[in-house]
């Protein structure tokens, strides 16, 4: 990453208003179809809004996906092709919408969880969809022709509410984080047989309270998790868990803990293509971290680059880097608004 | 037998005020027994005799007195023991009856639920036979897995420690199959969250039993 010489700051580009309840999640469309930015946001008002950058350069709400979910929409995720959007709701269902020429249509509804669905994630190829819920299970669905989804497996192992699931950037390895303070790694043992190959709990230098979110770096050899214990933890995920000899000890390990930077629960974390980690916390602030090239220490260490206090009026629930423009960031909050930020040097 | 001489009567009279009235008869009796010996020896040993009979009568007095007091002092304990025995016996009976009731109820519920799943599996298998293409191969495999799980369930061994796990596995497999069929199939008798439901039933009956036993004093049963 070309280092910016000067001091950095986060500048608000625009504040997006429209939702009538807290905004829980954000997802940038990964499609490389020339659209500079399409952002999906999901909210407690039971709708999902699509925002696009108009010809004037400002962001407008181009679509509202409503009348499908009966309760809060907690999380949303675009398929790698950018054509499908999966939305997870507290009503226990996950809806899959197809994006055809500006219009969105609900093409599938995945039912199966017993209660509130908290997270949804597509794998790298778009063939698998993972959902997690308060019923402590993670369901893996396979996309079939004709927008049909078939449940492949139900993963049990967590002892509490599962907050988020995320696939590895290119391996079919699934990671889930939970209220039970652990991070679990799941792989397939051939023929729909999914099981937990590793649990990163307190014994493996893991978190000591609810783990809210995780994010892989673009290469997939590092993962960051954030927690209610006020720390961010960096993990070495360079080994392929499917290839371990299965002696139970697992191949991923703890690298570094970032503590002392947050004084309230960290709800969201995202790693940019350029290696910047952004965090959104309950103190309404957004922080940026980067690896510091400190040659004195053997282990990698990270330092805080920017702290944007009062980024929102209430808890920041989600922070997401734009996948095309590495300096563009979106944040969502309990105050019902979404803000688009730009990282730039402080003009001297 | 020689008749009581005047001396005997005197001794009797003498002895009466010394000893406690209930025992005067016994001492009198003693004297009477002694009557077979010569009067002379009685006369000679009269002091010794009085003393001896006094001692004997005093011992007997003490024995009788403690018997009476025993029945007063130990009244509480005796009745307590009797009550306990009664309670225990009745508790055993009631516990058995309740156990039978709970067993019948639980057994019926388990049987009903498993029967429901078996019925579904049979219908699905018939459909597969008629039209093999109706379900995807993954779905067919799940149906066979459910059939195997149902077959393995130990219906005749309710005390098998794995029954709860097996029931959970069956319920989960059924949920996956219904999710994949896109139908909202639900066994109405089964509580929404299976584990909580079982706990409710168990704790509910336990509480009920506890209340009953507390009322009737059947502590030992539990």
TrEMBL record, chain A:
<dbReference type="InterPro" id="IPR001680">
    <property type="entry name" value="WD40_rpt"/>
</dbReference>
<keyword id="KW-0853">WD repeat</keyword>
<feature type="repeat" description="WD">
    <location>
        <begin position="309"/>
        <end position="348"/>
    </location>
</feature>
<dbReference type="GO" id="GO:0016226">
    <property type="term" value="P:iron-sulfur cluster assembly"/>
</dbReference>
<feature type="repeat" description="WD">
    <location>
        <begin position="110"/>
        <end position="151"/>
    </location>
</feature>
<dbReference type="InterPro" id="IPR028608">
    <property type="entry name" value="CIAO1/Cia1"/>
</dbReference>
<dbReference type="InterPro" id="IPR019775">
    <property type="entry name" value="WD40_repeat_CS"/>
</dbReference>
<dbReference type="Pfam" id="PF00400">
    <property type="entry name" value="WD40"/>
</dbReference>
<feature type="repeat" description="WD">
    <location>
        <begin position="16"/>
        <end position="52"/>
    </location>
</feature>
<feature type="repeat" description="WD">
    <location>
        <begin position="155"/>
        <end position="186"/>
    </location>
</feature>
<protein>
    <recommendedName>
        <fullName>Probable cytosolic iron-sulfur protein assembly protein CIAO1 homolog</fullName>
    </recommendedName>
</protein>
<comment type="function">
    <text>Essential component of the cytosolic iron-sulfur (Fe/S) protein assembly machinery. Required for the maturation of extramitochondrial Fe/S proteins.</text>
</comment>
<dbReference type="InterPro" id="IPR015943">
    <property type="entry name" value="WD40/YVTN_repeat-like_dom_sf"/>
</dbReference>
<comment type="similarity">
    <text>Belongs to the WD repeat CIA1 family.</text>
</comment>
<dbReference type="InterPro" id="IPR020472">
    <property type="entry name" value="WD40_PAC1"/>
</dbReference>
<feature type="repeat" description="WD">
    <location>
        <begin position="66"/>
        <end position="98"/>
    </location>
</feature>
<keyword id="KW-0677">Repeat</keyword>
<dbReference type="InterPro" id="IPR036322">
    <property type="entry name" value="WD40_repeat_dom_sf"/>
</dbReference>
<dbReference type="GO" id="GO:0097361">
    <property type="term" value="C:cytosolic [4Fe-4S] assembly targeting complex"/>
</dbReference>
<feature type="repeat" description="WD">
    <location>
        <begin position="204"/>
        <end position="245"/>
    </location>
</feature>
UniProtKB/TrEMBL annotation, chain B:
<protein>
    <recommendedName>
        <fullName>Essential protein Yae1 N-terminal domain-containing protein</fullName>
    </recommendedName>
</protein>
<comment type="similarity">
    <text>Belongs to the LTO1 family.</text>
</comment>
<feature type="domain" description="Essential protein Yae1 N-terminal">
    <location>
        <begin position="83"/>
        <end position="121"/>
    </location>
</feature>
<keyword id="KW-0732">Signal</keyword>
<feature type="signal peptide">
    <location>
        <begin position="1"/>
        <end position="22"/>
    </location>
</feature>
<dbReference type="Pfam" id="PF09811">
    <property type="entry name" value="Yae1_N"/>
</dbReference>
<dbReference type="InterPro" id="IPR019191">
    <property type="entry name" value="Essential_protein_Yae1_N"/>
</dbReference>
<dbReference type="InterPro" id="IPR052436">
    <property type="entry name" value="LTO1_adapter"/>
</dbReference>
């Amino acid at each position: 990453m070309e280092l910016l010489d000067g001091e950095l700051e986060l500048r608000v580009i625009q504040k997006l208003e429209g939702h009538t309840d807290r905004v829980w999640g954000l997802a940038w469309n990964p499609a490389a179809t020339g659209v500079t930015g399409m952002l999906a946001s999901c909210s407690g008002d039971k709708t999902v809004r699509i925002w696009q950058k108009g010809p004037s350069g400002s962001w407008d709400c181009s679509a509202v996906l409503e009348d499908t979910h009966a309760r809060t929409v907690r999380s949303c995720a675009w398929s790698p092709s950018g054509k499908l959007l999966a939305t997870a709701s507290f009503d226990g269902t996950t809806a899959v919408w197809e994006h055809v020429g500006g219009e969105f249509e609900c093409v599938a509804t995945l039912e199966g969880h017993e209660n509130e669905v908290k997270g949804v994630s597509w794998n790298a190829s778009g063939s698998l969809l993972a959902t997690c819920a308060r019923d402590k299970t993670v369901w893996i669905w396979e996309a079939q022709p004709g927008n049909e989804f078939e449940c492949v497996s139900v993963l049990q192992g967590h002892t509490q509410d599962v907050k988020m699931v995320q696939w590895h950037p290119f391996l079919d390895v699934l990671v889930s984080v939970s209220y039970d303070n652990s991070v679990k790694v799941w792989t397939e043992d051939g023929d729909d047989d999914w099981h937990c190959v590793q649990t990163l709990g307190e014994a493996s230098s893991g978190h000591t309270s609810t783990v809210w979110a995780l994010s892989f770096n673009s290469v997939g050899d590092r993962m960051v998790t954030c927690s209610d214990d006020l720390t961010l933890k960096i993990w070495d995920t360079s080994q392929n868990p499917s290839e371990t000899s299965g002696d139970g000890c697992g191949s991923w390990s703890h690298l570094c803990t970032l503590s002392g930077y947050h004084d309230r629960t960290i709800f969201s974390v995202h790693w940019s293509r350029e290696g910047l980690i952004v965090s959104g916390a309950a103190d309404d602030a957004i922080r940026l971290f980067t690896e510091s090239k400190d040659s004195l220490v053997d282990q990698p260490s990270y330092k805080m680059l920017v702290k944007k206090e009062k980024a929102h009026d209430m808890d920041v629930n989600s922070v997401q880097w734009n996948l095309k423009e590495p300096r563009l960031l979106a944040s969502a909050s309990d105050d019902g608004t979404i803000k688009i930020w730009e990282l730039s040097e402080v003009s001297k | 037998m020689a008749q009581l001489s005047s001396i005997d009567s005197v001794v009797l009279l003498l002895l009466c005020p010394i000893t406690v009235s209930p025992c005067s008869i016994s001492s009198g009796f003693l004297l009477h027994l002694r009557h077979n010996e010569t009067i002379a020896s009685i006369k000679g040993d009269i002091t010794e005799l009085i003393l001896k009979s006094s001692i004997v009568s005093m011992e007997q007095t003490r024995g009788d007195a403690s018997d009476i007091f025993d029945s007063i002092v130990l009244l509480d304990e005796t009745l307590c023991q009797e009550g306990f025995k009664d309670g225990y016996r009745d508790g055993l009976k009631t516990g058995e009856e309740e156990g039978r009731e709970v067993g019948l109820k639980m057994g019926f519920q388990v049987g009903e639920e498993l029967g429901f799943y078996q019925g579904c599996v049979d219908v699905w298998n018939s459909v597969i036979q008629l039209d093999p293409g109706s379900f995807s191969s993954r779905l067919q495999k799940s149906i066979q897995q459910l059939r195997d799980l149902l077959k393995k369930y130990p219906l005749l061994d309710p005390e098998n420690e794995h029954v709860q796990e097996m029931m959970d596995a069956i319920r989960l497999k059924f949920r996956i199959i219904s999710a994949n069929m896109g139908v909202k199939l639900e066994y109405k008798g089964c509580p929404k969250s299976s584990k909580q439901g079982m706990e409710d039933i168990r704790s509910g009956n336990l509480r009920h039993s506890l209340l009953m036993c507390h009322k009737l004093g059947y502590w030992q049963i539990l």
